[in-house]
């Protein structure tokens, strides 16, 4: 019979070690077994979709969520398969990812960085999400991307347009399919010159956060390179709803172009105010006063109503792209059919980028043969693909930014129905919107090393 | 000079909204002693009354157009509003065009009913509770109301246009001897200011020149004594709650063409309107109106580029700076009454 020597100090030590072990977060204990965070052990794999389900971008978040659900259906072999049949990579076969059925959890970012981080953290730690996707605000995307880097999961950004997401705030675990502010400006500038000439004076109203700043910096640089003059740039609070007091100084500023670096509800309200104050009927410097909205969305066009007619902007994708611009943009019609049959209306660009990101993640895992985020990162970096609606696309290894054609659009003058509010003016080829990885607008950060979470 | 005139004009419409909301808040506080944080939500519901009327009048039937296809390649359909079908293209389209002014008729009974239900169903149970409890319950109610609106109408702003005849701008500059196109101001904002002036005058006239108003004013001054005279002051105060809800709702209806209604607009106005009430003086109706216009105009001036260049960020804090200065120099606000919230 053995004798047990229980001492007070011994009990405390044992208790402390056991307690520390139990207190380890779920993702760290999972990582200890497999070498990376939330390695799937059963016959399912969980993805986390973090979108604004409340707050000013909730409608875009709802459309993103629809696209995520559709992508999961197609990955699991349900529905008509959507863009799986047009995607240039054939690693996905409709049996989930690496033989595991795809499940998903959703979170509400509320378009607030702290809420988005809390929601992503919960999905990683409690629900075991192995990848986080979603967006609609660059502030949120940058915050969640940082969290995913720390936690050791992949972040497949949804709608985020700030240069910083793949610029100074880029991370090795983060990937962006959507275009950015620099690309918008590069695509828009030649069209603006053709439409409005090289002798213009621009007044900027800019949303006061990361996206607004980089959008304004990009469009100012591009238009000044054309010969335009920048009269003023006024930062407006993100929470502003009435822009009349910002619009009235434009009237007698000498500017003949108003650039609204606003998005979502901000843009709807500022454009409405600008039209109410007669800016679109005004003549300045012997020219018609013009309004430019660098980043467009179909949902914004719907919100702005008749005020959007004739106003020029840019988009990442449009549901009419393949029909109007040809088979180069294959995948568009397959996605529109899938989405339209399921939901009764065409998808937005936010939906398309989220759907594509989900397929790209799944495909990278299938090609890598593992869910290890670093192996998936290697599979995505430098990956060239086609058939997801945007034409030939490159996921550049230097900054994890996708490079593809950019659309210049304008509000339809006489829309035939509620789905034709935006007209494609031209498609700007990839080469024209490509920049050096060390471009000053993207400087200041480093990808760093991939973090598998182990 | 032209910039100053423009900012004064600009402040008038925002000040009108502040004044109308603050007037309702003060009526409720003065009569029932309730701090109603759901009052901004009533303004928002008023705006959505305009949206609802526009949608009702635009209810359409579909006709298949075999010559066109929709986005899925199926035969296309086009919508014809029943109003246009029944009354003809010109008169029918005119009715839809005037949906915002017509929404006033719809909003008055709806808002009074909502006010009655709120007061009888929830708020009356909190009369004897601390102000903190009243704030919590009404704030919670405001969140519920805005989430209900978001569920049915979505999160994006909904364009609700003014009648065609009011869509242009008025050239004030020419009237004042300036060059054309120097001081221009949207017609609808002038309409809004005039509408606010009429509503405010009507509320004051109602309280000043009717027996009902006289009893309410007496009740606001000394509720117990009026009760001892055998007058059912509670019933009258409930009616005043409905009236305050209607004022907020009408302010919202007419504001719809100025800023596209969205579910969050009530919260945007609520906090500022409370500051307006405090600056004007708790319980003072003229104070609420005066402070509403004053702060609206000051906020507008603070948004001028020259002012922001001088003091960056002043546009976002001006109202609170003024509130601090007023409360330090006149603790009861501009026209506050002795004894209100001082016990």
Class per helix and strand makeup of chain B: mainly alpha
Which chain pair has the greatest contact?
A-B, 49 and 47 residues
Shape of chain A: globular
How many domains, in number, for the residues of chain A? 2
Structural class designation of chain A: alpha/beta
Oligomeric description of these chains: heterodimer
* Shape-level CATH architecture of the largest domain in chain A: 3-Layer(aba) Sandwich
Q: How far apart are the termini of chain B?
A: 47 Å
- Let me know the number of strands of chain A: 17
Average pLDDT number of chain B: 87
- Main-sheet strand order of chain B equals 1-2
- Quickly count the helices of chain A: 15
Order of helices and strands of chain B: HHEEHHHHEHEHHHHHHHH
Rg of chain A, Cα atoms, Å: 24 Å
Average pLDDT reading of chain A: 89
InterPro entries (chain A): BCAA_transport, Leu-bd, Peripla_BP_I, TAT_signal
Pfam families (chain A): Peripla_BP_6
Organism (chain A): Puniceibacterium sediminis
Keywords (chain A): Amino-acid transport, Signal, Transport
Task: Note down, in words, how this protein is organized.
The complex is a heterodimer of chains A (454) and B (343). Helices cover 40% and strands 18% of the residues of chain A. Chain A is of the alpha/beta class and 454 residues long. Chain A has 2 domains: 44-179 and 321-403, Rossmann fold (3-Layer(aba) Sandwich), CATH 3.40.50; 182-315, Rossmann fold. Chain A has a 7-stranded mixed sheet with strand order 7-6-8-11-12-16-17, with helices on both faces. A 5-stranded parallel sheet of chain A has the order 2-1-3-4-5, with helices on both faces. In chain A, helix 7 links the parallel strand 6 and strand 7. Chain B has a domain at 8-54 and 79-263. In chain B, 68% of the residues lie in helices and 7% in strands. In chain B, the strands form 2 sheets. A two-stranded antiparallel sheet of chain B has the order 1-2. In chain B, helix 2 packs across helix 5 (99-121) and helix 12 packs across helix 13. Chain B is globular. The model of chain B has no long low-confidence stretch (mean pLDDT 87). Chains A and B meet through helix 8, helix 9, helix 10 and helix 12 of A and helix 1 and strand 4 of B. Chain B: It is found in: Cell membrane.
């Amino acid at each position: 019979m053995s004798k047990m020597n229980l001492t007070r100090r011994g009990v405390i030590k044992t208790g402390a070690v056991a307690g520390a072990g139990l207190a380890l977060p779920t993702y760290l204990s999972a990582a200890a077994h497999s070498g990376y965070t939330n390695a799937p052990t059963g016959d399912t794999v969980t993805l986390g979709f973090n979108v604004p389900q409340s707050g000013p971008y909730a409608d875009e978040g709802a459309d993103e969520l629809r696209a995520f659900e559709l992508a999961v259906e197609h990955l699991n072999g349900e529905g008509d398969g959507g863009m799986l049949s047009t995607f240039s990579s054939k690693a996905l076969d409709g049996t989930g990812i690496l033989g595991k059925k795809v499940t998903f959890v959703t979170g509400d970012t509320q378009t607030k960085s702290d809420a988005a981080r809390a929601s992503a953290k919960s999905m990683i730690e409690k629900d075991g999400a192995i990848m986080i996707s979603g967006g609609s605000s660059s502030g949120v995307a940058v915050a969640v991307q940082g969290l995913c880097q720390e936690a050791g999961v992949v972040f497949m950004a949804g709608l985020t347009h700030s240069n910083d997401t793949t610029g100074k705030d880029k991370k090795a675990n983060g990937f962006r399919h959507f275009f950015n502010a620099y690309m918008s400006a590069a695509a828009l500038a030649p069209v603006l010159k053709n439409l409005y000439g090289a002798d213009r004076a621009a007044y900027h109203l800019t949303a006061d956060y990361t996206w607004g700043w980089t959008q304004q910096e990009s469009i100012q640089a591009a238009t000044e390179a054309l010969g335009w003059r920048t009269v003023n740039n006024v930062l407006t609070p993100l929470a502003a709803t009435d822009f009349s007091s910002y619009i009235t100084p434009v009237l007698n500023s000498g500017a003949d172009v108003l650039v609204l670096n606003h998005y979502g509800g901000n843009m709807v309200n500022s454009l409405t105010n600008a039209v109410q104050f007669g800016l679109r009927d005004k003549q300045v410097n012997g020219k018609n006063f013009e309004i430019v909205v660098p980043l467009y969305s179909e949902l914004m066009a719907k919100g702005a109503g008749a005020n959007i007619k004739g106003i020029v902007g840019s988009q990442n994708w449009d549901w009419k792209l393949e029909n109007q611009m040809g088979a180069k943009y294959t995948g568009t019609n397959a996605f529109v059919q899938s989405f339209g049959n399921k939901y009764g209306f065409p998808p937005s660009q936010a939906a398309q980028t989220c759907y594509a990101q989900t397929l790209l993640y799944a495909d990278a895992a299938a090609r890598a043969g593992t869910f290890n985020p670093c192996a998936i990162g290697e599979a995505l970096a430098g990956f060239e693909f086609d058939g997801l609606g945007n034409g030939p696309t490159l996921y550049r290894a230097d900054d994890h930014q996708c490079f593809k054609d950019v659309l210049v659009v304008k509000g339809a003058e006489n829309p035939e129905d509620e789905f034709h509010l935006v007209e494609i003016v031209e498609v700007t080829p990839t080469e024209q919107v490509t920049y050096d990885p060390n471009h000053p607008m993207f400087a200041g950060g480093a990808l760093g090393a991939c973090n598998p979470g182990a | 000079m032209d910039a100053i005139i423009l900012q004064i004009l600009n402040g008038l419409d925002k000040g009108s909204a502040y004044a109308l909301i603050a007037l309702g808040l003060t009526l409720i506080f003065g009569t029932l002693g309730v701090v109603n944080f759901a009052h901004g939500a009533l303004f928002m519901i008023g705006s959505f009354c305009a949206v609802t009327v526009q949608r009702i009048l635009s209810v359409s039937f579909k006709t298949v157009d075999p010559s066109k296809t929709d986005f899925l390649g199926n035969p296309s359909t086009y919508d014809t509003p029943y109003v246009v079908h029944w009354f003809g293209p010109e008169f029918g389209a005119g009715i839809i065009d005037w949906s915002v002014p017509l929404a006033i008729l719809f909003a008055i009974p709806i808002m009074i009913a909502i006010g009655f239900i709120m007061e009888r169903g929830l708020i009356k149970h909190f009369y004897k509770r601390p102000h903190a409890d009243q704030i919590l319950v009404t704030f919670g109610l405001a969140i519920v109301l805005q989430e209900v609106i978001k569920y049915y109408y979505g999160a994006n702003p909904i364009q609700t246009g003014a009648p065609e005849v009011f869509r242009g701008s008025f050239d004030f500059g020419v009237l004042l001897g300036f060059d054309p196109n120097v001081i221009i101001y949207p017609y609808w904002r002038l309409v809004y200011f005039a509408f606010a002036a009429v509503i405010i005058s009507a509320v004051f006239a109602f309280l000043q020149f009717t027996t009902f108003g006289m009893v309410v004013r007496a009740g606001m001054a000394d509720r117990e004594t009026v009760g001892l005279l055998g007058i059912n002051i509670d019933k009258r105060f409930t009616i005043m709650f409905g009236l305050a809800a209607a004022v907020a709702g009408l302010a919202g209806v007419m504001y719809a063409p100025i800023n596209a209604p969205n579910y969050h607009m009530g919260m945007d106005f609520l906090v500022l309107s409370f500051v307006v009430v405090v600056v004007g003086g708790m319980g003072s109706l003229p104070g609420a109106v005066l402070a509403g216009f004053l702060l609206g105009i000051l906020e507008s001036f603070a948004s001028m580029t020259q002012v922001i260049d001088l003091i960056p960020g002043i546009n976002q804090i001006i109202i609170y700076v003024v509130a601090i200065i007023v409360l330090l120099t006149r603790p009861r606000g501009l026209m506050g009454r002795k004894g209100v919230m001082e016990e």
